[in-house]
């Protein structure tokens, strides 16, 4: 199939195209210089054209997501997806698999990364990926509380740790190293937590600083496409902004050495809004988003995603088990907890961010402080779905960012007065341009993930993932902005038109993206000898049953990494 998308107003930051009127040609799933006279012509005059959206941090598949679905039938009733010719789906904050794919596609999104995959539960994640249409998928694999990682790092054995991480990534068909509350989730298995970057966890007696720094070293030894992806200690606690800055800087002297992609950073801070809290308690709680933004702006090794609060009823879920218990105790809401042997844990708690709640309103403002004051080359758009709110609210966030008038309306009419008094949102006149929206939702995620060679742009040779929005680039009306970005005029996935006029018109199934890391044979032999003993001693499953089978995907997109030179 050939297409020529004509007369669009193109925003493609990776190619420095800022609102240029031009045509995009598509053949056989990729963008090409020209097409034949047989190409189907689509006139999008007056419309904005961008690469397909990329969600770098979302929770859409796996055991904790499914736990949320099971424990929240009331969420299923909040929103029903029932369109002729497509699978029926339910769920507002935790939609079913098919509904997840359809709704991303309606928004012009074509790629999404599950942000927390336990290796032992990887088969569950990939099974749900099989039934998530419309988007390419990948998963960040959890390592920050892994017994074997902590043992190797405590011994200072970075080579074996790197070999083990490579083996787990290969076995779980994972994409990157994810760290959650380093040392703290393991401490929760003993009924405890860690409090800060230098508080050693029980039994292993290793600190969060040692884990983050050690896994950053390992990441660059392997040369993975993405940097370490970190959820620091002290999430959600007043005063945690100092821990956040310490964590950002604990490995800043390490040089990025990706073997694939154009990553220039070594540290990604996930859902930064939850880590930018000032004050000493909820009584004097305040935003430190501006201070955090200033620190990022003067640092060259960091990218961040925001985790914006959308002031909705939602479902919180994270591998930070002790934090979820704290949330359960503070709200009285129902709670689920899971421990994954040797590897991680998680919790799930329903939550309602009421606009009139003083603390929730400040949380909302903190995210905007970060968006509005951080260098837009370093910011990635997320809600930490569903923790800050559902991903379908990205269009509303874009409206807040593009319209000061809309932000002021929310500040003065919708949210508690604490938001204005305890943040800088009301004082900031910045309004995002369409080019900056394309940065935070397309170009920056592609570059940070190490995938900018193939996606996140509209250059010749890129995967033909394209979004068209029926909106003037200078539009400032918030309702128009929100509607346009919620329902794309067109979405193309791998060169196929999958959305027209905001509705899915074709069901397709994208690739599952993973890394395949090769290490040298001698190191692999040494690792296997150690792992076989550890599996016999500590795991309840056999080592042969651990890896995800190759059959567990509709199609794989493997990124091959040659790390035989580990040293």
What is the topological layout?
Blueprint: E1 2-12, E2 17-27, E3 30-32, E4 40-43, E5 48-51, E6 53-58, H1 63-71, H2 73-78, E7 80-81, E8 89-90, H3 97-106, E9 109-117, H4 122-130, E10 136-142, H5 147-155, H6 158-172, E11 176-180, H7 184-188, H8 208-222, E12 228-231, H9 241-249, E13 267-269, E14 277-278, E15 286-287, H10 289-297, E16 302-305, E17 313-318, H11 321-331, E18 336-340, E19 344-352, H12 358-373, E20 379-380, H13 394-402, H14 404-414, H15 418-421, H16 434-449, E21 466-469, H17 478-486, E22 490-493, E23 496-500, E24 503-504, E25 512-518, H18 521-538, E26 556-562
Parallel strand pairs: 1-4, 1-5, 6-9, 9-10, 10-11, 10-25, 11-12, 12-13, 13-16, 16-20, 25-26
Antiparallel strand pairs: 1-2, 2-3, 5-21, 7-8, 14-15, 17-19, 18-19, 21-22, 22-23, 23-24
Description:
This protein has 567 residues and is an alpha/beta fold. The protein has one domain (52-452): TIM Barrel, CATH 3.20.20. The protein has 18 helices and 26 strands. Strand 25 (512-518), helix 18 and strand 26 (556-562) form a beta-alpha-beta unit. The N and C termini lie far apart (47 Å).
């Amino acid at each position: 199939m050939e297409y020529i998308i004509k007369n669009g107003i193109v925003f493609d930051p990776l190619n420095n195209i800022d609102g240029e009127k031009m045509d995009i040609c598509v053949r056989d799933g990729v963008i090409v210089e020209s097409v034949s006279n047989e190409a189907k012509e689509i006139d999008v005059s007056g419309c904005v054209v961008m690469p397909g959206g990329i969600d770098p941090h979302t929770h859409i598949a796996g055991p904790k997501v499914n736990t949320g679905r099971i424990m929240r039938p009331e969420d299923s009733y909040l929103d029903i997806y029932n369109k002729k010719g497509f699978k029926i789906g339910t769920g507002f904050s935790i939609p079913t698999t098919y509904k997840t794919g359809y709704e991303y596609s309606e928004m012009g999104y074509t790629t999404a990364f599950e942000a927390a995959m336990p290796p032992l539960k990887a088969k569950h994640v990939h099974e749900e990926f099989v039934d998530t249409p419309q988007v390419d998928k990948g998963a960040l694999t959890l390592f920050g509380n892994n017994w074997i990682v902590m043992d190797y790092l405590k011994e200072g054995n970075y080579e074996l740790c790197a070999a083990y991480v490579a083996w787990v990534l290969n076995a779980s068909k994972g994409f990157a190293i994810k760290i959650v509350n380093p040392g703290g989730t393991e401490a929760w298995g003993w009924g405890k937590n860690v409090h800060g970057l230098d508080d050693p966890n029980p039994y292993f007696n290793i600190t969060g600083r040692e884990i983050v720094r050690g896994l950053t070293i390992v990441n660059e030894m392997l040369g993975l496409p993405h940097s370490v992806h970190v959820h620091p200690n002290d999430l959600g606690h007043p005063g945690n902004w100092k821990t956040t800055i310490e964590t950002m800087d604990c490995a800043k002297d390490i040089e990025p050495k990706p073997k694939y992609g154009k990553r220039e950073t070594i540290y990604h801070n996930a859902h930064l809004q939850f880590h930018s809290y000032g004050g000493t308690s909820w009584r004097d709680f305040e935003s430190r988003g501006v201070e955090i933004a200033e620190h990022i702006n003067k640092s060259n090794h960091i990218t961040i995603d925001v985790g914006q609060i959308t002031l909705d009823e939602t479902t919180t879920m994270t591998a930070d088990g002790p934090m979820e218990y704290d949330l359960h105790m503070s709200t009285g809401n129902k709670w689920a907890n899971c421990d994954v042997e040797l590897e991680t844990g998680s919790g799930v708690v329903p939550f309602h961010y009421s606009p009139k709640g003083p603390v929730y309103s400040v949380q909302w403002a903190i995210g905007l402080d970060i968006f509005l004051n951080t260098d837009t080359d370093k910011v990635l758009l997320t809600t930490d779905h569903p923790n800050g709110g559902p991903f379908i609210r990205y269009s509303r966030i874009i409206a807040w960012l593009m319209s000061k008038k809309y932000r002021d309306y929310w500040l003065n009419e919708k949210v508690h007065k604490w938001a204005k008094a305890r943040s800088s949102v009301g004082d900031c006149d910045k309004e995002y341009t369409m080019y900056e929206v394309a940065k935070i939702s397309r170009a920056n995620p592609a570059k940070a993930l190490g995938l900018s060679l193939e996606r996140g742009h509209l250059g010749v040779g890129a995967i033909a993932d394209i979004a068209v929005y029926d909106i003037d680039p200078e539009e400032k009306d918030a309702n128009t902005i929100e509607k346009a970005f919620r329902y794309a005029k067109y979405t193309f996935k791998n060169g196929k038109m999958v959305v027209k006029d905001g509705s899915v018109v074709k069901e397709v199934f994208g690739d599952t993206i993973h890394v395949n890391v090769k290490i040298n044979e001698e190191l692999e032999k040494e690792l296997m000898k150690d792992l076989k003993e550890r599996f016999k001693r500590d795991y309840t499953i056999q080592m042969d049953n651990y890896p995800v089978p190759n059959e567990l995907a509709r199609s794989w997109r493997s990124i091959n990494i040659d790390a035989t030179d580990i040293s």
